Fold this protein.
Amino acid sequence: MQKNLPETSQRTDRALSDPSGLSAFAEMVLESMPCGVGVLACDGEDEFFLLGANPALLAYLRAPETPDFPVALDSICDISLSKDFREAFETSLKHGEIGQFSLAWGEAEARRTFAGTLQVMASQDKDTRRLLMTLHDTTAETARQTELLRSTLYDPLTGLPNYSLFLRMVNDILDRLDTPDRAAMIVINLDRFRLVNESLGISAADQLLLEVSQRLSKLCPDEAILARIASDEFALFVPVNVTEAEALALARKIHHQLDTVFTLDQHNVYVTVSIGIDLLSKQIHSGEDLVDNALSAMHRAKAEGRGRTVLYHAELRKRSQSLFALESDLREALDTKSLELHYQPICDMRTGAVIGVEALARWNHPTKGPISPLEFIAVAENAGLIGKLGRWALEEACSQLAYWDQVTHQSRALTMNVNVSGAQLGEPGFVEIVRDALTMAGLNGERIRLELTESTIMSNADLITDMLLDLKAQGISIAVDDFGTGYSSLSYLNRFPIDTLKIDRSFVSRLGESAEDSKIIHIITMLARTLGMTVVAEGVETEAQRKLLGELGCHFGQGYFFARPLPARDVTKLLQTQATLPDTARDGPEH
Ligand code: C2E
Ligand code: CA
Ligand code: CA
């Protein structure tokens, strides 16, 4: 290993023959010093020789344990060629300061790093310079720093870049892109993640996130960057060759990939995601803009009912700002109890007798006027207000029903149908909330029927089985709302304690137009009879529909033909005078 000393000039000979630096050094150095220390000689031509070194320095330089000093430094390692080392030398030489340099060798696990200093010792002539060199092993510290950096840049659960690293990577790419219309930002947010978190616990929720990230990685095009940018949110940046159609196709694949069941701690969980996409355009100046726009689009997808993709357009930002304003207005409306319930009668299809009512929330906004429940229920769900709204609706509906019991003399007790959204089931203590509302009003469970959509049932299947059984045990019945629109498999009908199917309005409105819809309704009524369930047709608007539905075996109906949703006082009057519909005197728009 050791290179023979070159037959160099006189200057070099002088440098090597003067032992003063070495002897001074030899006295100082402790064998066991955990820091590498050595003395170098430098000839006038910048060639370095190691005159002496402690064992640590020799080990750090990967030199033989007992070299024949003096030894040319470049015969041991190539440090003297490094720019860093040269600069440290220059610094010390010119300014009399301690020059600093670093050294690293080995790969991966075996990689070691060192921090070194060089100091030109005083009073030497140019040809026999002595230098004190030290080397510290910084491997552990470097590993710690690397880990720290990793944990500040990567998500520890999925190993994906976090938001801050993601933005940096995206901005780097944007800086380099020269065809600025060929990139897409796709933001993917898990719908109702909180529900999984609260009902199955953090470890199952983590497992879900991990599996989602793995499924997403599989779909990720080669050049794309996938990151976890918030607890239940991923972002995918595709920097090349993406048209709008291709970005949408990728989003479809994502929905599809996440469509199959996740098994978490033996629970089967179905998830949907809301996706927002923004394509790079001239108005975009940074990764932040792209993400913001994709987020606005994603929020829109949520507001439109989740489980879908929305492509960003400038209108959306305005809309998301007004959505935010609506959210705070709704919060206030709930606090000041300025929402109302209207009640739509549910009637016997043949006699028109009112057998129950469905409570439907109404919000008359102080400046915007009436706002559709489709809109404000979605706002409530996204803003985490649905628990409060749902509790209010249950309490209000129960107390109203108790009032009607007192002031009217119905031959049979009315049933109160109350809508329950999926997000509400995730609120802690849902069953207790229902029970409390009944108790406060002095009603028993048979008097209320909770309406849940098929997708609410299916996307929370594992979480709600016990809940539904518990409600059932208290006499409360369950209706499947908008039946026929949500879920292709009907296996859940056997699995859950369901009492009523409410045939979606879309089937009823097409009645008479296509034989297909009559057939479907007929099959639903037969199926319901077999399973011991009742059927209510929604959206009955005409006498012809009423008649046909009756013939198809549908016993109950709800719709403008019988009555619109009415304020409580109108229902009171209706129940006090007569309880069969349609009541032509009262037929008219909702007020
Ligand atoms: P839904 O549960 O399917 O309620 C029936 C909707 O159909 C009501 O719309 C009702 O006004 C309308 N409707 C009834 N008969 C007819 C008809 O003959 N023709 C037509 N075209 N429409 C008819 P609304 O009141 O706008 O409510 C919309 C949705 O908002 C409801 O759909 C329900 O999903 C939700 N919603 C309303 N109130 C609440 C609530 O208190 N809690 C929850 N979670 N959701 C609610
Ligand atoms: Ca309903
Ligand atoms: Ca419905």
Observations:
- The chain has three domains: 33-142, 154-312, 339-577.
